[in-house]
Amino acid sequence: MESGAAGRAPRLAAVLRDKETVTPLELFFDLVFVLALTQCTALMADDPSWAGLARGLLILGVLWWSWVGYAWLTSVVDPEEGVVRLAIFGAMAALLVAALCVPEAFDENALLFAVAYGVVRIAQLVLFLAASRDDPQLRSAVLAGLVGSTALGVGLLVAASFTDGALQGGLWALALALDMAGPYFFGSEGWRLVPAHFAERHGLIIIIALGESIVAIGAGASADVDMGVVLAAALGTGVAAAMWWLYFDVVALVAERRLSNAPVGREQNEIARDSFSFLHLPMVAGIVLGALGLKKTIEHVDEPLKTIPAFALMGGSALYLLAHVAFRWRNIHRFSTQRLLCALVLLAVIPLAKEVPAVASVALVAAALAAVIVYEVVRFAELRDKMRHQLAPAD
Prior knowledge:
Shape: globular
Mean pLDDT: 88
Radius of gyration: 22 Å
Number of helices: 17
Number of strands: 0
Distance between the termini: 35 Å
Order of helices and strands: HHHHHHHHHHHHHHHHH
Largest sheet: none
Helix content: over 70%
């Protein structure tokens, strides 16, 4: 008994991760991100202008990057052991405050948003430093790269809170760009992750984003649920289901295996950075934009969509597909012509969405995505079966 106890890590210390599955605490943490997505959609819905769209996407990008930091963190440390659990709770509280500030993040709550966001990022840095106490390479990567890019990003957001208009938007864009560019400036050496966990965590965030599109349908519905609302809700669910299929049927499996089979170190880290940390952002942004379009559709099913909601519905779905094209190319260097063509078609019919009833526009998106799915199921039937049922992960 005594020798076993002596061999355990101190409970107040950060414990390195030794399991591949996502933990309940990570799922609990991600629930706060649900509110953040909902708030971003609501912000754009309340201000359906190009400026409102830009602000919503900038806030989404900043919040996404904070979530990414914890995806990397919890692929190094066990979030349910030691002081990490308490720190995660604290980060959740700060992220919740930031999410609550989203509607006024460019106005009266700008400074509070920046401070809350800074607390989220600082907690991540502290935990990374605790986790790297016996890993000089990881500690060097944190100190050399992450500390600097985090300080720069948070500092620019604080500075932006004292400005307004184009200058404020420019500072937000610069903060996001420089923070996300940090991994390129300072390299990918020294970082570590558990591939299966990392891929699963990003898959779950896609599900969370798709769940937001379902929430948007409910938020847009009035008390009078007629046949038009029923049809639009069914078609909207079909759009969300098609997006789920396009990601989880084969793409997620191939990406996880590619990450797991990559040589540990720089190559694996760069795949994780590019395929997951970077390219999942346009996927999530596309889903959020689509949710905005669905929300406006449910509000007025018989009327044509206005310019911004039409762009959000069609353009968001196109952005989701284009991110898939880039995702596939980064992972296996193959080009998805059918998804690219579908994205171009959706972009081309944005003017049509401003002329026909909104429910018809949703039907068009659902039909376009379904056509891609049917084509891939038939065209790549043998390869699909191999990927889903016959090809076991490499030892």
